[in-house]
Specification:
Rossmann fold; Arc Repressor Mutant, subunit A; five-stranded parallel sheet; 12% strand; phosphoprotein; EvgA-like
Length: 217
């Protein structure tokens, strides 16, 4: 499995390369120091299966660089490794379709846990950042108010939705509820279909409002 590591600091690239080889020694890391280099490597290596990228690199503004990579290579999952540790950056990255957001300040154990999840096709988002700061409620309120009638969720789907709202990965949800990751994926898909929500960021926002409504009733 080829993994593209894109960061303009060689020490970060070296650390990530060492970390992913700790997770799986068979992984083949490719290194880019800019968005332009990342585009070249992806063109020369169509079998890249994951991108680990910094938001801030030479060539393009942070989210524009991410959008350009996603637009040209939508089939390759992207995880962000960033110095930005505010909720706004994390939520925006989720809305752009990334499968992970890993703060550069994460300690060794947390970094390995995050990389293990994204390398295995799961998701990772820092719950402390998403839940620990003052949260904006506008998106949640808009999602909750879009229809007066809330689609009926099964008890299991409700549990899954509430855990998504806590930024839990599919693997963590599976462990928490005692089910397989495949079963969790089925529940996540069904919840998304019932609520007409395609992005995980929308499910997270709706789930927060949904949880608060259930707690108040």
């Amino acid at each position: 499995m080829k993994v593209l590591i894109a960061d303009d600091h060689w020490m970060i690239r070296s650390s990530l390369k060492h970390a992913i080889r700790t997770v799986n020694s068979a992984l083949e890391p490719l290194e880019a120091g800019s968005f332009q280099e990342a585009f070249h490597l992806l063109g020369d290596n169509p079998d890249v299966e994951l991108m680990l990228i910094d938001l801030m690199m030479p060539g393009l503004p942070e989210f524009e660089g991410l959008r350009s990579l996603r637009a040209k290579h939508p089939e390759v999952p992207v995880a962000i490794v960033s110095v930005h540790e505010d909720r706004e950056h994390v939520v925006q990255a989720i809305a752009e379709g990334v499968i992970g957001y890993i703060p550069k300040s994460a300690d060794g154990a947390e970094m390995l846990r995050a990389l293990t999840l994204v390398l295995n096709g799961d998701v990772y988002f820092p719950r402390d950042i998403l839940q620990g700061s003052t949260m904006r409620r506008q998106q949640s309120a808009a999602l909750a108010a879009r229809d007066m009638a809330t689609p009926t969720l099964t008890s299991r789907e409700s549990q899954v939705l509430e855990l998504i709202a806590q930024a839990r990965s599919n693997a963590e949800i599976a462990e928490k509820l005692g089910m397989s990751p495949n079963t969790v994926r089925v529940h996540v898909r069904n919840v998304g279909l019932k609520l007409n929500l395609k992005e995980r960021s929308d499910l997270m926002a709706y789930g927060e409002s949904y949880t608060n409504t259930r707690a108040a009733s």
